[in-house]
Structures are given as structure tokens and as C-alpha cells.
Amino acid sequence: MSTAKTGSDHEAHHARVGPRALLALAGFRRLLFTRFSAQWGDGLFQAGLAGAVLFNPEREADPLAIAAGFTALLLPYSIIGPFAGALLDRWDRRRVLVAANVLRGALIVTSALSVAVGASGTTLFTLALVVIGVSRFINSGLSASLPHVVPVRNLVEANALATTLGAVIAVLGAGCAVGLRAIFGDDNLGSGTTTAVACLGSAGSAWFAIRFARGALGPDEVNEPSQTAVAVARGLYDGGRAAVKTPTVLAAFVALLAHRMAFGVALLLTVLLIRFRFDAGLGGLGQVAGLFGAGILLAGLVTARIVAAIGRRRALAGGLLLGAVAVVGFGLPLTMPTTLAAALVISFAGQVVKLCVDAAVQRDIGDDLRGRVFALYDTLFNVAQVVSIALAALVVAPDGASPLLVLGAGACYLVGVGGFALVSRGHA
């Protein structure tokens, strides 16, 4: 079993090599293109679906309908993730990435046809559950494969580059959806046509993935029962046990859990404010997405330097504190400019937290368990975000003007800081 040196602050002792040196690695470069194609398609599909449900004059939207839409985007992998993670640690990840992308492309076309013919919200949400579930599975496979294409000493920097650029590419995909809607129209047929274009991302991702040699992405060893069904059933248990037994990962999970719950509330409020209070339409949501992408890009540029300067633990806690300040300071005025500012700062803070958590899993979890831990990672935090959105939808004002929910989101961040400190101190 491949293992990694543990400890929250040891990254500071490794020199950064820079993006140019990382991109010179053929395997890393190919994995990046696999990720970029997949995430461009993800961004376009999700934005196309959001436009079809939230900003389509032929359909109505309210807080509960919006919450149901977010559930469709976030819940699927929360259900299948722990079990799929066992497959990532059992099956050739290269083969899994190819097959999953082909399946996702077919499902995207099916979803697009359903949008075009005016299928019910239940039908669309069910299809979205499956499409996004496959997408999450692909993302976990890409994350689990990263240590096979870069040296372990460069994982923090490589993960920051891959995750950040991938998120920016997803935002660009969402921007393409906005542009395509302007061409094809915002009715059911136009929305369906826009959504269908996302299948090109799946095709490109499968093409790049198939160029890897068999076994090149792991797993190196298989620590599983011979029966696949038993291996799948053990996914949740094994991932949870590995996370709990690794102090740096457990503490990081506590922090990210708090961020995702706070972010879920902020996300629902933002969509409602743009849709009903500011009347900014899909263009306003595009502005938020653009600033969100800018925050992610900025975090990718500076997180490795922050970790090198102050260590992963302080960087992670600082991200949570910045999130608390941003959500309250920019959220309470309830204006479009401050909402845009909140999108920029909260996305930056959240991405710093996420990159630190990714690094903890990639460095401190062995290769034979890494896929399951990443799958559990997605599951826990998507469930947390879905629950926070659902609970907020029950009490939020119809136009999103709910100061108490803003304060509640800030409190989530502060609870996360306290929980992270307690778990870290308890294992020190």
C-alpha cells in the first residue's frame, strides 16, 4: 500500500516548482485535459438546466422548487458515492473514466431531449440526479488518480492548479450556456438545445482518458474482498474509518463541513435575491458565477504560498474566518454590489479550505483507500449542503431578504473554526 507522510504543516518544507514544471509532466497534462473537458461540460449542463428551471418563462420557480433543483445537482453522488469509491480502488481508473464519460454523454442527451419537450420538473430532476451523480464519480476518479502523475512532494501545488483551473473551466462552461441561450432562445426547445451541447465535454474527456495506458492511474494494489458486491458495500465503512484514523483528514473534514453548510444557505439566498429582489435574470447569475470563478482562480494562485508560509492548519482556519466575515459583512446589506462582492470573497475562502482538505486526503491517505475517502468526502459535504439549503428554503423570505439566515451562515463558519481547532488539538 502506498502511504504518505502525515502532518498538517509539512508542506512548507517542500519547494514549489511552478506551473510550467508541472505542465511539463505528460501524465499530469493529459489528466488536466481530461478534467477540463469534463468540467466544461459540467458547467454548461448545470447552467443550462438552471436556466431551463429557474429562468424559463414557460416554467415557474419558488424557494422550494429552487431547493429541489439544488438537491438534484448535489444529492446523487451523496447516495452512491461511498459505494462507487470502492470501485475506484478496485477497478482500473482509466477504464472507469472512459466508461463513465460515455455514459454521462448519453444521459446528457436524454436530459436535453426531456427539457426540449417540456418534461415535468420531477422528470428533469431525476435525470439530473443521474447525470450529476456520474459527474461526481468522474471527479473523484480524477482526484484519486492525481498522485500517479505527479511526485508526492508536489501534490499540494498540482492539486491547487488542477482544481482551480478546472473550476474556472466549469465557470466558462456556464458562461457558454448563457451565450448559447441567447442564440437558441430561453424557451423549452432553446434550453434543451443548449443543454445538449454539454455532451461534447463528456466526449472530449473520454478521448483524453483513453490515451492513458492501462493501470497508469491506479490503483496500485487492491485491498478488497473478491466479491465486487461486498467491496462496494464496504466503501462507506472503509472510507469513514480511514478518515477518522487520520487526524489531519478528520479535522479538515470538520472544517469543510461547516463551510458547505454555510455556503448552501448563501447560495439559496443569492439565487432568490437575483431572481426576485434584484430582477437581474440569468445575466445577474452569470455575474455571480464570473466572480465566483475569479475567487477560485485567485485561491489557486495563492493557496500554495499561504500554506508554505503559515502551514495548512492556519491557512484552513483563516479561510473559515474570512468566510464568516464575508458572508455577514457583504450579505447583510442585501444589495446587488455587495452580493457580487460576497461571491468573490466567499468563493476564495471556500476554495482555500477545499484545497487544504484535498491536500490532506491526497498526502495522508494510502492509494488503496484514497478513492473511497474522496467518495466519502463528496458524500458528506453534498449532504450537508443539501440539508442546509432545504432547511433554509422552509423559512427564507420569498425574495431572499432574510438577515437572520445570513447571520446563521456566519455562525456556521465560526462553529467550523471551533470544531477544527478542537479536533486538531485533541489529536496533537
Automatic annotation (TrEMBL):
Positions of transmembrane segments: 64-84, 124-146, 158-183, 249-276, 288-308, 315-334, 340-361, 373-397, 403-423
Major subcellular site: membrane
Keyword annotations from UniProtKB, A to Z: Cell membrane, Membrane, Transmembrane, Transmembrane helix
SUPFAM superfamilies listed in its UniProt record: MFS general substrate transporter
InterPro entries per the UniProt record, alphabetical: MFS, MFS_dom, MFS_trans_sf
Family annotation (PANTHER family): INTEGRAL MEMBRANE EFFLUX PROTEIN-RELATED, MEMBRANE PROTEIN
Name of the protein: MFS transporter
Organism: Actinokineospora globicatena
